[in-house]
């Protein structure tokens, strides 16, 4: 499981390196039956065989970023945007929009698109979008972002999103070992797996380590070290 997880990370890193080096390739990005096919005032992409238009001017963080550039520069930046949808249903579509990508890391915004209306929520900047899974009742989303240190170490941050409000859900009573994984902009440990146990309980797998230094985490990755499972109730 962990080795497959690392392979997916490396594939994402290779994609982002290509984005930074060749902006024209971004328009043909494909992931799980989704692709950005046109850029302009809206990002047009396909997900689950359905075409969507995502109006850029309704995504405040992205629009503010583009406003820092000249019209010609904006065209280049638009071509480098990656839209990664991860859920669609009767209540619309959810997607991660990655922009301002460097060699490996991007800024991210979570968007909810329903008909022609868009709601958006900025996520932790300078990171790699790894995974998003919805709770069984589709009220919450657990979103996993990563930051790499070279090619051997990646650390994660976990955000819980209230999808009814499209707001970050604060976790007040998490045990001490979980807090670094949930604190804003905190990337301390790798998370090798996450899953919903029920509508409000999340289970994550993290390394068994005595400290979170680069040397310790790199050794753990190299040796395919042991993990422990942690559960927490997001509503308590």
UniProtKB/TrEMBL annotation:
Keywords: Signal. Residues 1-26 form the signal peptide. It comes from the Bacteria. This is Lipoprotein. It comes from Brevibacillus parabrevis. The lineage of its organism: Bacteria, Bacillati, Bacillota, Bacilli, Bacillales.
């Amino acid at each position: 499981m962990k080795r497959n997880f690392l392979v997916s990370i490396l594939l994402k890193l290779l994609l982002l390196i290509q984005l930074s080096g060749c902006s024209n390739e971004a328009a043909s990005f494909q992931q799980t039956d989704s692709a950005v096919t046109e850029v302009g005032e809206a990002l047009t992409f396909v997900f689950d065989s359905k075409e969507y238009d995502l109006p850029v001017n309704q995504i405040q963080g992205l629009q503010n970023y583009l406003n820092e550039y000249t019209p010609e520069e904006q065209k280049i930046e638009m071509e480098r945007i990656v839209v990664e949808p991860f859920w669609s249903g009767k209540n619309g579509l959810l997607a991660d929009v990655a922009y301002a990508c460097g060699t490996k890391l991007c800024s991210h915004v979570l968007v909810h698109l329903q008909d022609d209306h868009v709601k958006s929520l900025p996520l932790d900047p300078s990171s790699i979008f790894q995974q998003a899974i919805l709770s069984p009742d589709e009220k919450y989303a657990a979103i996993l972002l990563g930051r790499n240190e070279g090619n051997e170490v990646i650390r994660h941050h976990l955000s819980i999103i209230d999808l009814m409000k499209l707001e970050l859900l604060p976790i007040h009573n998490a045990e001490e070992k979980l807090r670094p994984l949930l604190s804003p902009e905190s990337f301390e440990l790798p998370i090798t797996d996450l899953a919903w146990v029920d509508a409000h309980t999340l289970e994550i797998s993290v390394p068994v380590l005595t400290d979170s230094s680069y040397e310790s985490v790199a050794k753990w990755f190299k040796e395919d070290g042991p993990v422990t499972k942690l559960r927490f109730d997001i509503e308590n």
